[in-house]
Amino acid sequence: MSDGFKILRYDESERLNEDGSNWTFWKTRIIPYLKGSRLWPYISGSMPRPAATDVDKLAKWEEIDAQALSMILMNIVPNVQAGLDCSSAKAAWDGLTGRYAQVDPIAQNLAQTRLRTKRFVEGSVETVPTHIAELQRLREACGGLGVDITDAQFAGVITLSMPSPSWDPVIGTLGGILDPKVVISRLNTEWSRRQGLTSGGKDSNVVFQTSSRPKCENCNQPGHVKAKCWSKGGGQEGQFPWKNNGRTSNTVNSVTDTPIVWAYGCSGGCDVWFADSAATIHVSPNREDFSSY
User: Fold this and answer.
1) Which of 84, 85, 91, 95 shows the smallest number of beta carbons within 10 Å?
2) If residue 62 lies in a helix (H) or strand (E), which one and from where to where?
3) How far apart are CA 38 and CA 89, in angstroms?
């Protein structure tokens, strides 16, 4: 085993925790690796320590046993090592088993409480993807203590963790969905959408956004403001663009700072012109009526 020996080292978040909340998960992952590396017999005790008289076999055994012990110690947090018998790989493993293998009802209840009371706080530094990742970690912690959180239960935990009323319209669309992957995908998509709207200065709490048009306080009609209103009481009262002597009054061009197109709206010879921004084709017999074309 000494030839080409490599120590498997998990990320700090994946190592055995001091409270043992991930014991089952950690053990399930590391045992296959130990077996594949042919270190498990030294940990399980099926490869006993040779007699002291057999110097060569003892030296070889101690070498491999030290490798197995290193594999264990490098994948547990430092506080777990405190008080652990490290005289051999088997002694260390037996110490961990005795410490964490027993099911602790109090630890189980605490793990479930942490999962079910975790809430996303609107406006905090935590993002929705980070919040969901923490929920997944808490679910794994429950599983490590022997508490199975089903997919349907976890989907419910996720939806209940989102704040009200800002996320109620989104949560309302998830009714009956029991697949947490779908729920997570929808929430992450909505989070990304809201982040884009926030950077654009729009209200991120509105599920469906529409482009806004100004509304006149004088006549209550959309498309202009009071200062540009031709109706009675408006800033340009009576300045509606009537045709005069075959040409439109110059007030047409001063009605608004935003260039618009006027479409003729009467077939009976009347000289009334209507603002029609939705028209795709604009026809007039008088070229002079347009400021741009």
Assistant:
1) 85
2) helix 55-73
3) 13
Whose CA is closest to 115, among 144, 75, 95?
A: 144
Look up tokens 């109706």; give the residue: 231
Please write the tens of the pLDDT for every residue from 149-163.
999 999 999 999 999
Please name every residue paired with 153 in a beta bridge, in sequence order, or none if there are none.
none
DSSP-based three-state secondary structure for 44: helix
Beta bridge partners of 247: 244
Tokens at 153, concatenated? 């239960």
**What radius of gyration, in Å, describes the C-alpha atoms of the chain?**
37
- pLDDT tens, 103-119? 667 778 888 999 999 99
Asked, as a colleague might, if the bond just before 50 is cis with ω within 30 of 0, I would say: no
Cα dihedral 44, 46, 49, 55 sign? negative
Q: Which helix (H) or strand (E) holds 188?
A: helix 180-199
- Cα gap 44→25, rounded to integer Å: 19
Query: Can you say how many angstroms the Cα of residue 228 is from the centroid of all Cα atoms in its chain?
Result: 46
pLDDT in tens, 187-237: 999 999 888 865 555 555 544 444 456 778 888 887 777 887 888 888 888
Nearest to 68 by CA among 21, 118, 14, 7: 7
Backbone angles phi, psi at 55, to 5 degrees: -60, -45
C-alpha distances in Å from residue 255, one per residue of 81, 111, 214, 234, 265 = 81, 68, 15, 12, 18
